[in-house]
Design a protein that fits this description.
The complex is a heterodimer of chains A (221) and B (113). Chain A is mainly α. Chain A is built from 8 helices and no strands.
Chain lengths: 221, 113
Amino acid sequence: MKNSHTVFTHPPKIASQFLSWALPDSIVEPVLGDLSEEYLQRITNNKLIAAKIWYWKQAVRSGIQFMFKTQRGFVMFIFSIFLFAALTMLLMTLAGNIMMFIDISSIIAIFPPAIAFTYAATSRISVNQAFSILLNNTINQSQKVYSSSQRVFVVLGNSGVILGLFTTLIGWTAMGANMDDLSSFGPAFSVSILTLMYGIALKMICYVAEKKIENLSEVES
Amino acid sequence: MASKEKYLGEFEQFLLLSTLKLGDNAYGSTIRQLLADIIQRDVTIGALYTTLERLEKKGLLESKMGEATQERGGRAKKYFKVTAKGQYALKRSKQALTSMWENITINLGACEQ
């Protein structure tokens, strides 16, 4: 039988990862160590669920306190994306029905091919590095890594716009071929232009991501 | 002439006093537990380290990394020690409070009812 006093029980992994991400490097080790120690003490008192809740509370409160200092760039990036999404949804709602801006086939026509083109034009390592730099606000990278990461977002954004234009032209060609039925012109035009809208939205987000990495590289140099 | 040097805040005093009380065993977890036991203050580890780091930057505390143990998941402790400057700042804050309390009488009758 296992003795709970001698076996190290790992604290909630996601909470620990969040703390590691949010805390300054100088205190990650002592803080996580202190929390692990106290977590184990609470578990040995046969209060596993209470210990987990306590750990999560400590991690979330402490993490939020530090993330606005250590991950300011990332927090601002996410905030700007949310703001953009909220304003876009508000405009869509004001225009009538938000569902007329959502078309699954148009989403499939833009996003998966744009991501595939990005992997094809750059590399899996470059894509991983680009998102890692963006999400972790990493600044200790070489200029070569920054350049390849910027290129990832340039390719992703541009692929979105070009795919949007291309698929819109396909839609217009199809509409032109069926011009005799003018009653379907409006809905067909609306759907055909959606792909371009998605492509431009993707380009806008990628533009911000690219500029953020450019800024990080300038801070480093 | 008035001194421009500021007095310590309440939480700063609590942390310095906890560190003094714990002696060679003063690190994040023990300080946190001491505060909970003595003054019933349950602080987050983040708030604790924010103030400890600030006190260290002011030169009132010094720290050193200690041993890593199994119950800490192999992570090292960060021990804190109050410097001479820290002890002086504590004494000065205490004297200021004592001076301010002189000739003060508080009637707690209304509160106790």
